[in-house]
Amino acid sequence: MTDQQDRRTGASAWTAEPAPTEPPAPPRPGSLDPRELGFTPQRPVPWLAPLLLISTGLRTLLALLFGAYLDKRELQNSLPSNVTRQVGPGGDLWLDFVADLGDGFNATYSVAYLLSRPELEIDGQRLPRGQMLLMGGDQVYPTASGEAYENRCKGPYQAALPQPPADGPPPALYAVPGNHDWYDGLTAFLRLFAASRDSNIGGWRTPQSRSYFVVELPADWWLYGLDGQAGVYLDDPQLRYFEEAAKRLTPESRVIIAVPEPSWVKAVDHPEAYDTIDYFIRTVIAPTGAKVRLLLSGDMHHYARYSGPDRELVTCGGGGAYLYPTHKLRESIEVPPKDTLVRRASNSESYELNARYPDPDRSRRYGWGIFGRLPLRNPGFATLLGVVHTLLLLAMVGVAAPRTEAAAQRLFSIPLAMMLVVTLLGAVFFAKPPSANGKRHARHWILGLCHGFAQVGLAAGGTWIWLQLDFHVWQWPLPVVAAAVVYGPLAGLVASQLTATYLLVAGSFGVNLNELFAGQGIEDAKCFLRLHIDADGTLTGYPVAVDQICRRWRADPDGAPDDAWLSPEQPLAFRLAEPPFTIR
């Protein structure tokens, strides 16, 4: 139950929320027809599709180059700066955390369906639905827009909980923006989560007014949701808001910080990644004497928990996006990293990896699936490889074939040099895209060039086989037509398997590990975190794992108003990713 207190201190206001206006209940759909659902269920994003790679790369580059010009956080200073309070009727609170959710419908809705159930029973324990839902970033893929949010986030969650529960108040929903939410400068995110006229997404109400927030929880627990704009910095209005809210903290207070990315993991290779969080803790939280007991994040699409002397670091990004591996996680990390350049950084502490999902062996086995999934999940990528190899074939034949006419030889001899350069550069950039974070190390150059030379070698072998046939002596332009129709598709399939081999090898060196799994688009192995804060102050975490998502749904047109519109045709199995952990 939400309890608002009417207190005012400077810029922050503790205000009573107006009673949410109950929207008219939408008619329950009788099928999965988008015209009945009100949104279009989406297929998983084909992350290696050529046009998507180009558009996402350009958007990432623009965000890096012009992020300051697109930054709308300074403008949010004019929006209300409320600090809300969430406490259940018994003085406790159930809180759900989900992140990286706006991808394919089946995976996203499988998680949303479980989150909306009145309770989950696991190992004899009954876990009630969260009275509060926290979305931890990347609520939409691949880029933010009103239509994308409608189809990949709002629509599925409204279908899972169309109306507030009949037996209690509507659960609250808060959201932290991730890098994909930032690709349009946060415009669509603010419209959906912070400036909605209806102030609700289905049966969840959305009380936040900015892209960041503070929520008082039971037993002097506090939740701070940060908007770090892809880890760059915290703007002054946001810092002033947090500093004002922090005046309510005491040395007995315990703080949960939700951030867009697990910078404690990324700081292993990029020490500066943790600087923003460390600065926030040192300057805002530490002066109050309060203790940060839990850091929460998504961004990496798996579950992992690191434990330190007085803090838990949890990554839980299994809300719907493709699975990210766990077998390369460090068993121990230093936070903050000792080699940070920040002169007044906090003292480094050692954190041990206590749990991960999926387990390392299963994660490695998933990696081997790249051979079958790469061409099936990304036909456009295989087509691109086929086109490149067809051009390489024509260029090589134009130089090597003794029967080639002089004009044709002159035409194709120059493109051969160009195609070789393009192929090698493309392989190097694929190993470390210019828009990716961090520096290009020797392993990126070596593996990228090896991949490029392997593709050139494959093209040379294909050219030799082609010259043993009669296609190249046919009358012009039949050789080109034959190359495009016969050689291109076969070369694309073989080249995709060569790329899959490269990804598997490179992944073992920590290169292109994301592409190894993004290229597969693994929808299974999803997770979310259910937290319970008892009235005595004990926090218990229940990481819920879904080994296999549902792919077949049936409509429930005669259900109650708050029943899910769609139900799985077969029961959706779930379990705990690890035994419950507690923080006191």
Automatic annotation (TrEMBL):
Keywords associated with the record: Hydrolase, Membrane, Transmembrane, Transmembrane helix
For the protein in the UniProt heading, the enzyme class is hydrolase
Which GO MF term does the entry hold, naming one? Answer: hydrolase activity
Q: Where is this region: Disordered?
A: 1-38
Question: Which segments show compositional bias classed as Pro residues?
Answer: 20-29
Is Membrane set as a keyword in this record?
yes
Tell me where the transmembrane regions lie: 47-70, 381-400, 412-432, 444-467, 473-495
Q: Which EC number applies?
A: 3.1.-.-
Query: Is Nucleotide-binding one of the keywords UniProt gives this record?
Result: no
Q: Which InterPro entries does its entry note? A: Metallo-depent_PP-like
What is the protein name for this chain?
Metallophosphoesterase family protein
